Amino acid sequence: MRRSIQFILTVSFSLLSVAIIALFGLLLYDKFSQTEEQSAILSTQQIVEQVSYNLEDYVGSITEVFRVIDQTVANAQGRPGETVASELNAILRTREDIVSLALFTESGELIESNPRQTVRDSITLSEQSWFRSAVDTPNHLSFSLPHIQNIYHGSYRWVVSMSKGITIKRGGVTQNAVLLVDVNFKQIDELSQRVSLGQKGYVYIIDDSAGNIVYHPQQQLIYIGLKYENVEQALKYAYGSYMDDSTGEDRLITIKTVNNIGWKVVGVSYMDEVMTSKQEVGDYTLRILALVLLLVLIISAFMSARISRPIKQLEKAMKSVERGEFGTPVQVKGALEVERLSQRYNMMMGTIKGLMNQIVREQEAKRKYELEVLQAQINPHFLYNTLNSVVRMVGMSKNEEIVRTITSLSKLFRISLSKGQAIITVQEEMEHARNYLTIQEIRFKNKFRFTVEADDDVPHDRTLKLILQPIIENAIVHGIERMVDEGEIEVRAIAAGDRVRFTIRDNGLGIPPAKLAALNAGREIAPEPSPAGGAQPVSSGSGVGVHNVRERIRLYYGEEYGLTYESELEEGTTVTIEIPRNTDGADRALREEEAE
Question: Which residues form a coiled coil (predicted)?
């Protein structure tokens, strides 16, 4: 199926644009996806690091408090107990997160506590992890896991115990002791709870030494086994990120170690949330690309229409040429090549128009020459027959008939010549037919009688000359000459609407059907032998005469005009000639001949 240039340009531009935009979209989506994933990883790392820094800062602050308490206790030798207690109370009042502090001997005896509390009898301090760490590693500050403070009566608070083995003087005797400071775990819990990694992500804290969970937002589920964390894998990293699917979901694990306490902050981000963000980015990118594609399609359609419009104008001009309209030049504006094409087109049309005018002139000249040849064929033929008759009359000494014949012949030739004009009036053509019949009547010794009549409204109409004579001659030679009885020939000219109608009727022998069909079909018939032997040319269908008349009428007036025959054997023949009344063709031919 053939496509228009606008369609081809639009489709080509659109396909090229779709390919480029699709490639650009894929690259853009890949870049955005990588950026989104890297942003998620970086954001998780920053949050985890911030939690770690906050814990380090907090642990550093309570460590400093512990150091102050340690110095206060170490400097208490020789000072009143009330003074030392007052100093410790001042420290506790400045730090609401410190629940209590106490000093124990290595055997677990309570030396001093603030606030003052009573140790439970059922508690064995040597079984407490914080106590063992202080005894086993003197002068090293130890942090316990979060636990319930259960060594005092009536106290059940969630604390982290800070303990350290120190040396004191008691009763003048130096001995080892354990300093205990319980810090409210709520502060650490609040630092971790404020952290959010997406909708489902969270942060938890583990002990670096054994992998025990210090803090988890779902710690109760951990204890009862409904929640699982791959702590073993996390212990392998001091800092960094990795992917974990041990829980059945893809998760991004980010780890940062809290240096001064030995804990690890573990951030958990769910990749489906990252993928959701990537999907949102993809959807947004797709909408942008669809909008761009729509704009490109509109621009492509506009540009293709703009490019093809001059070509369509040329096509329209060519269609007008097909209809025969050569006069209007094409003024096409557009690209340089299109303008040059329109200029070449106008030049070509000018050349074609000139050639057509030349052909018209040549055809007119050819038509004129053909008519002159046809007329030349008729005039010698008639002259031959007439002079032959005059010769016979001279031999018979018929002077009066010779005068009538020569007089009619002179009038006949005067009208035939008509100063070289091919168009004469109907009156002149009817006069020409009368003179011709007069000559033939003398020639055939009054073998027929004739009448020549014309309506009053047609004598001044114009007609081709010498269109009646060949038909009349044909009627005489083929219709009446071989009759026994006297013949009749009637020639009439009447107005029939917008036409002039000539009728030539005879009562002769008629025309055989086969020949009649050939005459009406316009086929030229071979001449018949004359009675004396030899080939005598005859007119009106059996020789050049009728054929010449038909051709002349067709050339001047068109194919719809010409001759028709009606005939019955032994009844006679009627020939009808129709031409237009005062046609432009006849007037134009007359003007051309008058101008010449």
Answer: none
